[in-house]
Amino acid sequence: MSGFLVNPFVFGAGAAPGGDPFFANVVLLMHFDGTDGSTSFVDSSSRARTVTPNGNAKISGSDPKFGAGCGLFDGAGDYLTCANSADFNFGSGNFTVEAWIRTAVTNSFRTIVTNRASAGSDPGFLFFINNNGVLAAQCWGPTSGTALGACVSPNGTISANTWHHVAYCRQGNTFRLFADGVQVASATSSNAVANSSNQLYVGRDPSSTARDWNGRIDDLRVTKGTARYTSNFTPPSAPFPDN
Protein backbone atom coordinates (compact mmCIF):
# COMPACT_ATOMS: atom_id res chain seq x y z
CA MET A 1 0.00 0.00 0.00
CA SER A 2 1.35 3.45 -0.89
CA GLY A 3 0.45 6.89 0.34
CA PHE A 4 1.45 9.42 2.96
CA LEU A 5 0.32 10.66 6.33
CA VAL A 6 -0.67 14.22 7.09
CA ASN A 7 -0.29 15.60 10.59
CA PRO A 8 -3.92 16.51 11.40
CA PHE A 9 -2.94 18.95 14.13
CA VAL A 10 -0.81 21.11 11.86
CA PHE A 11 -2.93 20.85 8.75
CA GLY A 12 -6.34 20.80 10.33
CA ALA A 13 -7.95 17.42 9.78
CA GLY A 14 -10.16 15.90 12.46
CA ALA A 15 -8.94 14.59 15.78
CA ALA A 16 -6.72 11.51 15.57
CA PRO A 17 -6.85 8.55 17.98
CA GLY A 18 -3.28 9.25 19.10
CA GLY A 19 -4.15 12.63 20.55
CA ASP A 20 -2.56 16.03 19.99
CA PRO A 21 1.25 16.02 19.71
CA PHE A 22 1.22 19.68 20.73
CA PHE A 23 -1.09 19.23 23.70
CA ALA A 24 1.63 20.33 26.13
CA ASN A 25 1.53 23.73 24.39
CA VAL A 26 -2.24 24.10 24.71
CA VAL A 27 -2.86 26.82 27.31
CA LEU A 28 -6.65 26.96 27.01
CA LEU A 29 -9.11 24.39 25.67
CA MET A 30 -12.85 24.87 26.05
CA HIS A 31 -15.38 22.42 24.61
CA PHE A 32 -18.40 24.17 26.17
CA ASP A 33 -20.03 20.81 26.90
CA GLY A 34 -22.50 20.40 29.74
CA THR A 35 -26.13 20.53 30.71
CA ASP A 36 -28.30 23.00 28.83
CA GLY A 37 -28.42 26.24 30.82
CA SER A 38 -25.37 25.40 32.93
CA THR A 39 -23.01 28.21 33.93
CA SER A 40 -20.11 25.83 34.60
CA PHE A 41 -17.34 26.24 32.03
CA VAL A 42 -14.38 23.86 31.94
CA ASP A 43 -10.83 24.35 30.70
CA SER A 44 -9.76 20.93 29.41
CA SER A 45 -6.12 21.92 28.89
CA SER A 46 -3.48 20.72 31.33
CA ARG A 47 -3.70 24.15 32.99
CA ALA A 48 -7.29 23.49 34.14
CA ARG A 49 -7.97 27.19 34.56
CA THR A 50 -10.90 28.60 36.45
CA VAL A 51 -13.34 30.10 33.93
CA THR A 52 -15.72 32.69 35.38
CA PRO A 53 -19.06 33.45 33.67
CA ASN A 54 -20.46 36.95 33.64
CA GLY A 55 -23.93 38.19 32.78
CA ASN A 56 -26.05 35.39 31.33
CA ALA A 57 -23.25 33.47 29.60
CA LYS A 58 -24.24 29.81 29.67
CA ILE A 59 -24.03 26.42 28.01
CA SER A 60 -26.61 25.79 25.29
CA GLY A 61 -27.55 22.28 24.22
CA SER A 62 -29.06 23.70 21.05
CA ASP A 63 -27.06 23.71 17.80
CA PRO A 64 -23.56 22.96 19.11
CA LYS A 65 -20.84 22.38 16.54
CA PHE A 66 -19.56 19.37 18.47
CA GLY A 67 -20.48 17.46 21.59
CA ALA A 68 -23.24 18.20 24.06
CA GLY A 69 -23.15 21.97 24.08
CA CYS A 70 -21.72 25.30 23.05
CA GLY A 71 -21.26 28.66 24.72
CA LEU A 72 -24.21 31.04 24.31
CA PHE A 73 -23.76 34.82 24.56
CA ASP A 74 -26.53 37.39 24.03
CA GLY A 75 -24.39 40.40 23.06
CA ALA A 76 -25.37 42.41 26.13
CA GLY A 77 -23.14 41.64 29.09
CA ASP A 78 -22.42 37.94 28.57
CA TYR A 79 -18.75 36.95 28.64
CA LEU A 80 -16.18 34.71 30.33
CA THR A 81 -12.89 35.51 32.04
CA CYS A 82 -9.73 33.66 33.02
CA ALA A 83 -7.12 35.14 35.33
CA ASN A 84 -4.09 36.85 33.84
CA SER A 85 -1.34 34.40 32.95
CA ALA A 86 2.04 34.48 31.24
CA ASP A 87 0.65 31.65 29.10
CA PHE A 88 -1.27 34.27 27.12
CA ASN A 89 1.78 36.47 26.55
CA PHE A 90 3.15 35.30 23.21
CA GLY A 91 6.27 37.46 22.89
CA SER A 92 7.96 36.80 19.54
CA GLY A 93 7.01 33.12 19.53
CA ASN A 94 4.59 31.15 17.41
CA PHE A 95 0.97 30.76 18.49
CA THR A 96 -2.48 29.70 17.34
CA VAL A 97 -5.80 31.06 18.57
CA GLU A 98 -8.81 29.25 17.09
CA ALA A 99 -12.46 28.50 17.65
CA TRP A 100 -15.73 27.58 16.03
CA ILE A 101 -18.03 30.60 15.97
CA ARG A 102 -21.68 31.14 15.06
CA THR A 103 -22.60 34.79 15.20
CA ALA A 104 -26.14 36.17 15.21
CA VAL A 105 -25.00 39.47 13.66
CA THR A 106 -22.49 40.54 11.03
CA ASN A 107 -23.04 44.30 11.06
CA SER A 108 -20.98 45.29 14.10
CA PHE A 109 -17.71 44.75 15.97
CA ARG A 110 -17.99 41.62 18.14
CA THR A 111 -15.18 40.05 20.17
CA ILE A 112 -14.27 36.36 20.14
CA VAL A 113 -11.33 36.38 22.57
CA THR A 114 -8.75 38.90 23.81
CA ASN A 115 -6.37 39.76 26.61
CA ARG A 116 -5.97 43.41 25.64
CA ALA A 117 -6.25 46.10 28.27
CA SER A 118 -8.95 48.74 28.37
CA ALA A 119 -8.68 51.93 26.34
CA GLY A 120 -5.37 53.76 26.59
CA SER A 121 -3.02 50.79 26.55
CA ASP A 122 -3.21 47.82 24.22
CA PRO A 123 -0.75 45.02 24.95
CA GLY A 124 -1.81 41.50 24.04
CA PHE A 125 -4.00 40.19 21.21
CA LEU A 126 -7.55 40.65 19.91
CA PHE A 127 -9.62 38.27 17.73
CA PHE A 128 -12.96 39.61 16.45
CA ILE A 129 -15.48 40.12 13.67
CA ASN A 130 -16.49 43.50 12.27
CA ASN A 131 -19.00 45.12 9.94
CA ASN A 132 -19.93 43.37 6.69
CA GLY A 133 -18.94 39.91 7.84
CA VAL A 134 -15.26 40.77 8.26
CA LEU A 135 -13.00 38.52 10.34
CA ALA A 136 -10.02 40.28 11.91
CA ALA A 137 -7.24 39.90 14.46
CA GLN A 138 -4.24 41.85 15.67
CA CYS A 139 -1.64 42.16 18.39
CA TRP A 140 0.13 45.12 19.92
CA GLY A 141 3.87 45.67 20.08
CA PRO A 142 6.32 47.13 22.58
CA THR A 143 5.21 50.70 21.89
CA SER A 144 1.83 51.38 23.49
CA GLY A 145 -0.96 51.54 20.94
CA THR A 146 1.18 50.25 18.04
CA ALA A 147 -0.54 47.38 16.26
CA LEU A 148 1.32 44.47 14.71
CA GLY A 149 0.20 41.38 12.86
CA ALA A 150 -3.06 43.08 11.89
CA CYS A 151 -5.09 40.83 9.58
CA VAL A 152 -8.44 41.82 8.06
CA SER A 153 -10.46 39.53 5.79
CA PRO A 154 -12.57 40.57 2.79
CA ASN A 155 -16.21 41.50 3.35
CA GLY A 156 -18.59 38.56 3.59
CA THR A 157 -16.09 36.11 5.06
CA ILE A 158 -18.35 35.44 8.05
CA SER A 159 -22.08 34.88 7.62
CA ALA A 160 -24.73 34.94 10.32
CA ASN A 161 -26.16 31.78 11.91
CA THR A 162 -23.51 29.57 10.32
CA TRP A 163 -20.69 27.71 12.05
CA HIS A 164 -17.25 28.89 10.94
CA HIS A 165 -13.85 27.63 12.01
CA VAL A 166 -11.57 30.64 12.51
CA ALA A 167 -7.86 30.71 13.34
CA TYR A 168 -5.17 33.35 13.90
CA CYS A 169 -1.58 32.10 13.80
CA ARG A 170 1.95 33.38 13.98
CA GLN A 171 4.82 31.53 12.31
CA GLY A 172 8.09 33.41 12.73
CA ASN A 173 7.46 36.90 11.35
CA THR A 174 4.30 35.92 9.48
CA PHE A 175 0.80 36.28 10.90
CA ARG A 176 -2.03 34.45 9.12
CA LEU A 177 -5.80 34.59 9.44
CA PHE A 178 -7.96 31.65 8.35
CA ALA A 179 -11.70 31.17 7.91
CA ASP A 180 -13.02 27.66 7.26
CA GLY A 181 -9.52 26.49 6.37
CA VAL A 182 -8.81 29.23 3.83
CA GLN A 183 -6.20 31.92 4.43
CA VAL A 184 -8.07 35.22 4.16
CA ALA A 185 -5.36 37.66 5.28
CA SER A 186 -1.74 37.87 6.39
CA ALA A 187 0.75 40.35 7.82
CA THR A 188 4.43 40.44 8.70
CA SER A 189 6.28 41.79 11.72
CA SER A 190 9.43 40.87 13.62
CA ASN A 191 8.29 42.66 16.77
CA ALA A 192 7.33 40.85 19.94
CA VAL A 193 3.78 41.02 21.22
CA ALA A 194 3.73 43.20 24.33
CA ASN A 195 2.86 41.40 27.55
CA SER A 196 -0.61 42.04 28.91
CA SER A 197 -1.36 42.31 32.62
CA ASN A 198 -5.08 41.94 31.95
CA GLN A 199 -7.23 38.84 32.31
CA LEU A 200 -8.38 36.85 29.30
CA TYR A 201 -11.86 37.63 28.00
CA VAL A 202 -14.03 35.32 25.91
CA GLY A 203 -16.83 37.26 24.26
CA ARG A 204 -15.85 40.74 25.45
CA ASP A 205 -13.45 43.55 24.55
CA PRO A 206 -12.82 45.43 27.82
CA SER A 207 -12.48 48.68 25.90
CA SER A 208 -16.18 48.62 24.89
CA THR A 209 -19.20 46.67 26.13
CA ALA A 210 -20.81 47.33 22.73
CA ARG A 211 -18.43 44.69 21.35
CA ASP A 212 -19.81 41.78 23.40
CA TRP A 213 -20.21 38.54 21.44
CA ASN A 214 -23.71 37.83 20.16
CA GLY A 215 -24.06 34.17 19.25
CA ARG A 216 -22.36 30.87 19.96
CA ILE A 217 -18.76 29.71 20.45
CA ASP A 218 -17.55 26.11 20.49
CA ASP A 219 -14.16 24.40 20.84
CA LEU A 220 -11.98 27.39 21.68
CA ARG A 221 -8.27 26.55 21.79
CA VAL A 222 -5.14 28.65 22.42
CA THR A 223 -1.78 27.05 21.62
CA LYS A 224 1.42 28.85 22.63
CA GLY A 225 4.61 28.01 20.73
CA THR A 226 3.00 26.32 17.72
CA ALA A 227 1.64 27.67 14.44
CA ARG A 228 -0.82 24.88 13.67
CA TYR A 229 -1.90 26.23 10.28
CA THR A 230 0.56 27.64 7.75
CA SER A 231 -1.45 27.15 4.53
CA ASN A 232 -4.99 26.24 3.52
CA PHE A 233 -6.35 23.20 5.35
CA THR A 234 -9.46 21.12 5.98
CA PRO A 235 -11.18 22.41 9.14
CA PRO A 236 -11.32 20.00 12.10
CA SER A 237 -14.14 17.47 11.77
CA ALA A 238 -14.19 16.45 15.43
CA PRO A 239 -13.65 18.11 18.82
CA PHE A 240 -10.08 19.02 19.68
CA PRO A 241 -8.42 16.18 21.65
CA ASP A 242 -7.94 16.38 25.41
CA ASN A 243 -4.49 14.85 25.45
Automatic annotation (TrEMBL):
One matching Pfam family: Laminin_G_3
SUPFAM superfamilies for the chain: Concanavalin A-like lectins/glucanases
LamG-like jellyroll fold domain boundaries: 93-228
Keyword annotations: Disulfide bond, Signal
Name of this chain's protein: Concanavalin A-like lectin/glucanase superfamily protein
Species this chain originates from: Caldimonas thermodepolymerans
